Amino acid sequence: MPAGTRSSFGWTAKSLSVIGIIAWASWLHAADAPDARFSSSLFDGKSLSGWTVENGCDIAVSDGLLVLQGGDGWLRSDLTYSDFQLHVEWKALKASEYDAGIYIRTLAEGMPFPKAAHQVNLLEGKEGNIGNVPGASSTGLIKRGDWNAFDITVIGDTVSLSINGKEAYKAKGLARAAGYIGLQCEVPKGGQFQFRNLRVTELGYRALYNGKDLAGWEGAGQPAEKCWQVRDGLLECTGAEGPWLRSQEEFGDFNLRIEYQVSAEGNSGVYVRVPADGNHHRENGEAPPAGFEVQILDDAAPKYKDLKDYQFSASVYDIAGAMRRVSKPAGEWNTLEIDARGQQISVSHNGVVVVEVTEEKFPLIKLRQTSGFLGLQNHSTLVKFRNLRIGPPLPRPREFNAPRTPLHSPLEPRRQQQPFGKILDRQRPVSEIARRQARIDLHHDRLFGTILGNDQVDPDIAAKARHRLGGRQRCPLQG
Fold this sequence. Notes:
There is one protein chain. By secondary structure, the protein is mainly beta. It has two domains: 166 residues, Jelly Rolls, CATH 2.60.120; 186 residues, Jelly Rolls. 5% of the residues lie in helices and 35% in strands. The protein has four helices and 27 strands. Strands 2, 4, 5, 7, 10, 11, 12 and 14 form an eight-stranded antiparallel beta sheet that branches. The longest helix has 11 residues. It is elongated, with a radius of gyration of 22 Å. The relative contact order is 0.20.
């Protein structure tokens, strides 16, 4: 795609008036699965990268396997998922009365396990069943004492499961539009478990890097090959003198997910919505147009101890410092999620929301443009990247309480060659907006989204929502 092609995500300002109907309406259109998809491993066989251990249970990596070793708690994915396909292989080490589980679209809160969760059971005799989803049960497909493969597909309010290659069930009734993936650990009662080959396919996301070459990217003003290379499937900035890496597309509103690894004293950044020259500094309205940078840094390096708060990892440089510093040591992989919709910017770092920028709290953001190129900075140090993908933004209308944990939602491909295009010059039809997912508060179990009584809502969608809600005025999405 030629440089300057615009492929953005999102809604026009006027269309936000209907955002409250999105979550339920997306369920009403569950059959409209998007074509875009991005597959990645959830377990590298070496570490718990991409996961957070909750509530003190003992989870280890041994001989390439993920092992639930002791205690009660759970392993939570750093990212949240809406529509997805999940492959998991598991083995119970206890001969009988074994018990564990696989959480889908779960909340983060709860002790020792997440509350109000949908759990794909690993309890002896009920393997694969989901107790709070009618029809989500089967028998006779498990190989006792051996490895078993689960393929779980979640789209809208529907979940389907195949066990060892055989269809187990397809059932409706999921009560939450998005949430974490997790592994339940209850070793004192249920025994130890082993897992391998965990893989997720995110529906509604597409790759920005193909793992083979620099297609879709270019050096800014110089050949990219001077300091950028592909090695063992990873995108590397070698640290040699050379340009920053610029996307060949421009983007407006989006949800961007990246994994990165810095070397000792490493320094880099993600340029967001920058002009072709990469400008990401602008202090007043007379200065040239600029986007912004989300910082990447070896936070623990002594040479950086006296930096300003907005210069540490996951901060929006010059504008907002990360509320928590959760960087992993140099040489380990970090997850970074940047959500941009208009001038509302959210950054999640290793599973924690660390930045929430709005015009009211951070007025400098109003000086930054709302569409432009993406970029990866060359700051003369070795930095590695993988699993770069982009999807639709996380709707966060101001009239609702801003959630603390970002969710993502699949976005139906735009017609023709712009698979997720933001409407920059006209309003997207209401009926099309209605298919998008809403951002939901994972941590506080809040009700989300007024559906009825909104004169901007498509009448057909409102009628269906009214029927589904039984006349209620709010969406009980949190279960």
